[in-house]
Amino acid sequence: MGIRKPVVAANWKMNGNKQLVTDFLKAVADSGASTNIDIVLSPPATLLDFTQTQRDSLCKDVILAAQNMSQLDNGAYTGELSAQLFKDVGCNWVYCGHSERRHKYGESSKLVAKKFIQAKKNGLVPVLCVGETEEERKKGKAFSRLTSQIEAVINLAGKDCFDNAILAYEPVWAIGTGNAASPEIAQEAHKFIRGMVAAMRQECSENIRILYGGSVKPENAKELFSQPDIDGGLIGGASLKPHDFVEICQAAK
Ligand code: PEP
């Protein structure tokens, strides 16, 4: 996987509990999975404080991420959670624009760009998630969709926005369906995304880590992760099974 340190990130979505936090961290620690790769855990926000404490005693290397975050600093926004609140419970990374936020909660690319900027302003590493729907792919519009999602961030955040950031290609049709993109399709999209970054800043394109997400399992992880422009994965369903997650991490080495 060359000069870029692989990343394997767990996204528990609205699942999990304290027991799973402990089991997950023990499985990662016992397997030595975090040697030479960045392992990221994103449990529901209510579990973050507990996860931080457990992480510090069981497996210090694991990075904590928020699944979503407000674009605003603080104030009268009932139910929202800010960058500073996440930092207070040990988060260093945050996912921005996960497809479920875009499609189930109507987050526009402009709002996602504001969240991305807010993350950077507060010293959190944003993981910008992009990906086309099945219909867009069928109509030959996959790359124009990726372009518009990435340009929305560049337009608001500037040409050096991807320094100290992560990108994740997550085709909507592959998330939670059991139907992962083939290594060839994923590589083609990752190459396209890296090319977009290169057109802006060559050096950044060589360093930025681009993760693949969408039905990654122990059985398909190795082939996906061995593609030249795939630097690891964003894992949903399989990250709820500590044993499977650890196997996926081993495939990233
Ligand atoms: C995700 O939620 O980002 C994801 C990739 O989910 P799954 O692995 O379940 O497809």
UniProtKB/TrEMBL annotation:
Keywords: Cytoplasm, Gluconeogenesis, Glycolysis, Isomerase. One of its GO terms (molecular function) is triose-phosphate isomerase activity. One of its GO terms (biological process) is glycerol catabolic process. One of its GO terms (cellular component) is cytosol. Signal peptide: none annotated. Pathway: Carbohydrate degradation; glycolysis; D-glyceraldehyde 3-phosphate from glycerone phosphate: step 1/1; Carbohydrate metabolism; erythritol degradation; Carbohydrate biosynthesis; gluconeogenesis. It comes from the Bacteria. InterPro entries: Aldolase_TIM (IPR013785), TIM_sf (IPR035990), TrioseP_Isoase_bac/euk (IPR022896), Triosephosphate_isomerase (IPR000652), Triosephosphate_isomerase_AS (IPR020861). Its EC number is 5.3.1.1. It is found in: Cytoplasm. Substrate binds at residues 11-13, 176, 215, 236-237. Homodimer. Belongs to the triosephosphate isomerase family. NCBIfam families: tim (TIGR00419). This is Triosephosphate isomerase. It comes from Saccharobesus litoralis. The lineage of its organism: Bacteria, Pseudomonadati, Pseudomonadota, Gammaproteobacteria, Alteromonadales. The gene is tpiA.
